[in-house]
Here is the input.
Amino acid sequence: MLIIDAVHLREINMPLAFPFETSFGLTTTRRILLVEIESGGLTAWGECVAGEHPYFSDECIDTAWIVTEKELAPRLVGKEIVGGGSCPELFRQVRGHRMAKAALENAVWELEAQKKRVPLARLLGGTRSVIPCGVSIGIQPSPAALLETIAKELEAGYQRIKLKCKPGWDTKIFEAVRARWPEILLSCDANSAYRIADIDHIAEWDRFKLLMIEQPLWYDDFYFHSMLQKRLETAICLDESIRNRRDALAAIDMESCRILNIKVGRVGGFSEAIAVHNVAAERGIPVWCGGMLETGIGRAHNIALSSLENFSLPGDVSASARYWAEDIIEPEVTVSAKGEIAVPRGIGCGFAVRRDRIEALTVRRQTLRAASRVTA
Here is the structure.
């Protein structure tokens, strides 16, 4: 059993090593909510992946902070719980706010792994010793800059290249990439930038032999994706539409996609991520782990999740240096020349948190304890 003694909230402001552009806009600095949970002398961290604005989802860091402080953390502090799997029931009364919930739940799973003295990956049910890695490349200033970036990532060993796309940055870009690299494993991600009126335009992309087209239509849609999938030879992958196991079942049964992206924050934590993984495996649908510009804390959790058996496609879990000049964990996440990350074998997540680095980046903090709340 775990008794939760305290929950600490921190906001850190962390500049990206390189700007990252999607159909939502350009990101140069991340405001990130970190949670630290204490239990019986043990400490574990979680990361809320909500963005600065409610663009990817209806959450943002400011709503996540309020809900965590006022609703979620008070349901944890002072409680005696079995482990991470207890969190969904504790948080059940709070609707939505899955990214806020995930930050706390994932930290509790990490505490459980520490107490049981096992690797987090093993506690989650992981079986892989290494995970295959792809890379997500944002919209670039020019096609030439994109080709240069792809060449660099291929040289680094990444097994799959994913291109962010939007109307006006799609077909001609794919043509240029395929002209130079006819055989690489290539996919694209629209982040819901297209509509059903674009169906003929998207259908033309079959000629590029893409591994998948990720979330081309509305962020909350299954029906129109099902219509589009019937027109395509290329697999659709759903991301934003999949919030839980029930969504995954609906999408699979409606034939809205042939691949699923699992983001642990988007589905509310490890418990639901495992449930989505399992139902996809039962239905023969491959999955992979998506990224949300995480620091090393969230990246370590993605590595552990990606060790589960049905994560059979290269995910967006890549090296720390692709995003950060200096990460907040040590050692930093690195990718081998084969495009793989080794799954840590040590107790817990396998990475140490750099408190000095986090302290230097912290702009606000809050502590909730079992007996009373203290503002540091």
Remarks:
- The chain is about 35% helix and 25% strand.
- Residues 98-116 form the longest helix (19 residues).
- Residues 372-376 have pLDDT under 50 and may be disordered.
